[in-house]
């Protein structure tokens, strides 16, 4: 899956309600792992297929728009909100070497880290967009008023 949006928005929301960076940044990072344990979207497409890149690009665009809205609105703790949004999504960057190897037709032996990250995502399914959409709606419901602070 490529749920950058559903990691970025909660990361920003965490900072809106937990404005101390000593707590907010680790909480944002931890939120990534917690959210990966919930049912979420993953299609059957390979990381080498065009559809994957459309999904990845669309997701990155929406996540970027959320961060831009925080920047434009500049609510209290806006910089921490942006930081936590990025931190919350950043663990997915660990998959980048794996995806690059796959694009080159190489196989990479899974490391313990990839094994752990793969195991906690026990419920990546094509229908995972449904709980992700509901979850995203709830996060937006809380985030939008926080932008006005």
Biggest sheet details:
2 strands, parallel
**Overall average pLDDT:** 90
Give the radius of gyration. 16 Å
By secondary-structure content and strand pairing, the structural class works out as: mainly alpha
- What gross morphology would you assign? globular
User: Between the first and last Cα atoms, what is the distance in angstroms?
Assistant: 33 Å
The helical percent reads: 55-70%
Task: Indicate the proportion of strand residues.
Answer: under 5%
- Number of alpha- plus pi-helical segments: 7
Number of strands: 2
Low-confidence stretches: none
Order of helices and strands: HHEHHHHEH
* Widest β-sheet, arrangement of strands: 1-2
Oligomerization status of the protein chains: single chain
Which descriptors apply to this entry?
single chain; 149 residues; two-stranded parallel sheet; mainly alpha; 2 strands; globular; 7 helices
What features would you describe in this structure?
Helices cover 68% and strands 3% of the residues. With 149 residues, the chain is mainly alpha-helical. The protein is globular and about 50 Å long. The N and C termini lie far apart (33 Å).
Short description:
By secondary structure, the protein is mainly α. The protein is built from seven helices and two strands; from the N terminus they run H-H-E-H-H-H-H-E-H.
């Amino acid at each position: 899956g490529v749920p950058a949006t559903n990691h970025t928005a909660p990361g920003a929301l965490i900072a809106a309600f937990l404005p101390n960076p000593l707590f907010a940044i680790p909480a944002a990072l931890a939120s990534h792992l917690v959210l990966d344990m919930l049912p979420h979207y993953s299609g059957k497409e390979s990381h080498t297929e065009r559809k994957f890149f459309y999904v990845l690009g669309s997701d990155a665009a929406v996540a970027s728009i959320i961060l831009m809205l925080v920047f434009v609105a500049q609510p209290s703790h806006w910089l921490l909100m942006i930081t936590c949004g990025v931190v919350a999504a950043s663990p997915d960057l660990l998959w980048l070497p794996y995806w690059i190897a796959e694009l080159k037709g190489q196989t990479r032996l899974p490391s313990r880290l990839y094994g752990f990250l793969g195991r906690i995502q026990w419920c990546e399914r094509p229908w995972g967009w449904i709980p992700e959409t509901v979850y995203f709606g709830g996060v937006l419901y809380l985030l939008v008023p926080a932008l006005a602070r």
